Fold these 2 entries.
Entry 1:
Amino acid sequence: MDVLSSPNDVRCLVRRRRASGHLIGVVPTMGALHEGHLSLIRAARAECDTVVTTIFVNPTQFGPDEDFERYPRTPEADLELCREAGTSIVFIPNVDDMYTPDAATTVTVSGITRVFEGASRPTHFDGVTTVVAKLFHITEPDRAYFGQKDYQQQLVIRKMASDLNWPVTIVTCPVVRDADGLALSSRNRYLTDSQRRQALVLNQALTTAAEQALAGHRPWQIENTLTETLKHADGIRPDYAAVVDPDTLQSVPDDCRRAVALAAVWVGSTRLIDNRLLTFPET
Ligand code: AMP
C-alpha cells in the first residue's frame, strides 16, 4: 500500500496503474475510519484493480461554527484499516497540498443543494463538490464510492458528475449500522452513553416510516409521524424530517411508489443525520 500526500505523486502513480490496464476506484473520506468507510473500500476492492482511499478533513465543507478543529483525526489507525480493507493507495494530503492561499475556484451545484443539509449548512455542499472535483481530477477514477448514509451528498455528487460530463461511475453503498441500529458516523464518538441511547430514536423512527410505507400509509402521514416522534423524543432536537422524492428531494404525490425519509437531529451539541428509502404498495 502506497501512502502519498502530494497530488502530483498520486496522479502519476494512478496513471501508471491505468496504463497497465487497471480499473481505478476512489473512496473519498475524512478519516476516523469505521466499518461504514470500510464497506466502501471493500466494495471498491471487489470491482476495481486499484483502490485509492483519500483521507482529508476538508476545511471548506465546515461552517464557521462547526466542528472542523475537533473533528476526530486518527491517521495511524486509519492507515492500518485501509491496508486490511484492501486499499492500494492512500492519498492523505495536508490542507496546503489541496488549497493554495489564493485559491479562487468553487464548484457549485444549484437546486438540490439548497434544501435539507444545504439549508442548515449553507456553505457545506460547495465545499464538498469543490473537494470531490479536485479529488476526481487528482485520482482520475473509473468508479467512485459514496455512502447512502449521506443521502443528499451522493445525489449532489451524481448531479455534478453528470452535469460536468465526468467519465466516472458513482456507486452508492448501503448504510452500515451498529447492532443497535445507530448509523455509524465518525461523529458518534462525541456522544455520551446516555446521548447514544437517546440517538437510537432516529433509526427507530425511520424504521417505523418504512413499515408505514409498506402498510400503505400516505407520504404526508409518514412525514407527520416522523416529525412528531422526533419532536417528542428525550434529549433530541430535530433539525428537519421529511418524506420526499428519492431523486429530486422535492415533495411527492400521494400515490408515489418510492420516496426517501430524511432526518437530521441534534443530540446535545452533536448533529446526526440518517435516512431510509421507502417503498409503497401498488394502489
Ligand atoms: P466521511 O468520512 O464522513 O466524509 O464519509 C466518507 C464516506 O463514507 C461518505 O461517502 C459517507 O457517506 C460514507 N459513510 C459514512 N458513514 C457511513 C455508514 N455508516 N455507512 C455507509 N457509508 C458511510
Note: The chain has a mean pLDDT of 98.
Entry 2:
Amino acid sequence: MASNYESNSSSATSVESLLDELPKHKLFDICDIYQWEGFWYESRILEAALVFKSQFIARDDDFILASTVKTGTTWLKALCLSILHGNPDDKNKEEEILKKGSPHMHVPTIESMIFEENRYAIIEGMPSPRLIHTHLPYNFLSDSVKNSKCKIVYITRNPKDTFISWWYFMNSILRPNEEPFPLEKAFDCFSKGVYIHGPFFDHVLRYWNASLEMPERILFLTYEELKIDPTGQVKKLASFLGKSVDEVEVDDILWKCSFERLKNLEVNKNGYVPYNGLLNASFYRKGVIEDSRNYLTPDMEENLSRLCREKFQGSGLDLYLRR
Ligand code: A3P
C-alpha cells in the first residue's frame, strides 16, 4: 500500500499539467492556490488530496477528524486523544499523551503527510483504532472512507471568528516580519471563498448534510457549543467514540485540553509540526468566542451574516451569528 503513494512521480507530473488548466490566485500576494472542483488548494495539497481520494484505504475502526482551517482542529484533536488515550491517573504525569507531543504530532493531518518521504508509512503503520485528521472537503474523501464504517467528527466555528483567526495565522506564517496583509483584502478572499480549503460555507454545508444523512457515522460539532456546554459536548463526543466517561473523567479531559494549559505545555510552546513545518505555538492565539467583534466593521459583519443566511437557508444549521 505504501508503495502506491511513494511511486507517484508520474502523478506529480500530471498534477503540474493539471495546475496549468486551473483557476489560480495569489493568496496574501504570496502563496499560489488553485481551484479544483469548487475548492481552493496549495499545489502540494491538491496533489496529495488526489492521491488520498483515489488510494486511501479506510479501516472500519478509524476515527477521522475533519475541519476547515482555524475552526478548533487542535482542540478537537486534543479532546479525542484524551478521551481515547487518557485517564485521570495520568494527570500532569510525563506519560500523559498531551505532554508527550503536540496534538498535531499525535493526530496527523493526512493530506499534509502524503508525498513527504516515508510519511504514509506512518499512517499505514498506525495501530487501530487510528485517529487521523483532514482539512479536505467531504467530496474529497475516498470511496473507501465513505463506504467503510469508520467514524468522522467534523468541527466548525462561526465564520467571523474563523476569519479573524485565519487572518492572524496566515500573517504569522506568510508575513512574520512584515506589516499584516490588509484586513479588507483578506476579508474579500475569505468571503468569496478564495483561500486554502475554502469556500467555508460549502465545506461546512457538505459535512453538515452528510451528518444529517448518517448521524451514526458523522458527528457535527461547533467550537461555540464546546465553549458554551463543554461537559455536554465532551460526553457526546466520548459516546460517539465508543467511550463512556463519568463526571470526574469529563472534568479531567476538559482541564487537560483547556486552552491555557495546552498553550503552556512545553510540547506546544516549542518546536514544529513534523510533517508541515508549522510552529506548534502558532495554533494557540486567544481561544475565545466573538473576538472578531474587535476587528470586523459592521459592513463585514453584515456581509458574512448575509452569506450564512443565503448558504445555509433551509439547512437547519446555525453558526452562532450575532446579526
Ligand atoms: P483563535 O485564533 O481565535 O484564538 P485550528 O486548531 O483549527 O487551527 O484553530 C485554531 C483556533 O483554535 C485558534 O483560535 C486557537 O487559539 C484556538 N484553540 C487552540 N486550542 C484551543 C483550546 N484548547 N481551546 C480553545 N481554543 C483553542
Note: The longest helix spans residues 159-174.
